[in-house]
Amino acid sequence: MNILHTSLDILLPLVAILFFFLFYPFYLLIKLVIFLYKQFLSENVAGKVVLITGASSGIGEHVAYEYAKKGAYLALVARREDRLEIVAETSRQLGSDDVIIIPGDVAKVEDCKKFIDETIRHFGKLDHPINNAGVVQTVVFEDYNHIQDANLIMASKAALLRFFETLRIELNPDIKITIVFPGVVATDMTTPRYIENYGSDFIFTEPVSRCAKGIFNGICRGETYIEEPSWMKWIYVMKNMCPEIVEYVLHDLYFRYLKPSFERD
Q1: Which of 3, 20, 187, 216 is the most exposed place for a label (fewest CB within 10 A)?
Q2: What sections of the protein cross the membrane (predicted)?
């Protein structure tokens, strides 16, 4: 076993260097061509059936409006039936010819089965399920009362990511899966909490309509990952290329601009 690991320690760096100089430029060129091609390629969602959870407000509500503008049929899911009625009526006015609401809780398995069954029973098919419902928590480490809270949140996010990445491999090419990484978005769930706890909204908060439009466009282009706001993807790219520099810059930005947003009076 030691011989194997020693051999790999010597061999793999050589392979990586060879790949970087000989194949990586062509790989980047192919990625660029695909990126440019997708800018002009967009799925026509008119008549497509879209189920959106968490559709009563926030990102889910505004993603519904983006689909409605393009003529998609909508099944809107959330716990607040009164809010769903408002979103459904707005969606009809924006261009969706058929909208149904299905009140329920995604935390209940029987409700999740009901969402799917009622959508297919009404429309006869389901093209785009949008798993949007969820909660958000953005705090600095010192504000955690119990370390278990941080463990639960991070473990849940990591598990969801790996689950859908694995599911994408299993279901491809019959079913495509797009994973969205939203930043801090101005919604009824986030903005009042920031103002109450910290006296002002978060400095990098993105308007929810802008976020929803970016998500919708990414889905229609068939993106595998969507970062919103879109500039976040370049942070990930630079972090892979020069992690030390990115970490230094982020550290400086955090203490200069972000930490004051979290400081209590």
Answers
A1: 3
A2: 12-37
